[in-house]
Amino acid sequence: MTDDLTPLDKAEAAVREAEGSTDVARIVAAVLATQQAMQQQAPPPAQPCQHDHRKDRRGAGEWIAIAAAVCVGGFGIAFASIALAILGGVAGIVVIVLRGVWNDMQKGR
After folding, report:
1. Within 13 Å, how many C-alpha atoms sit on residue 5's CB side?
2. What pTM was estimated for this model as a whole?
3. The total number of structural domains that make up the chain
4. What is the pLDDT of residues 28-58, one digit of tens each?
């Protein structure tokens, strides 16, 4: 009948036996049996994840479209920067010419 006992039952029996005695060896044996029984128990089953997995991942075509949009946007920003640089240069030239005209008008008075 002792063969039908689980390791945890054996550990509990050893603890009950050690409670009535002050013998250190029996107490140590009970503690070791309890530890052994705890190690032999199966861990609890893992919990499944609670979040939803997205099924609509982007395909290769969508990534190519995104890359093309980024390239077109980059070219647009580059051309806008060039246009602003040209506009700044033209504005600078206009200011220099107008200053020269203003100086000429002031000398003529």
Report:
1. 11
2. 0.41
3. 2
4. 777 777 777 777 666 667 787 777 766 667 8
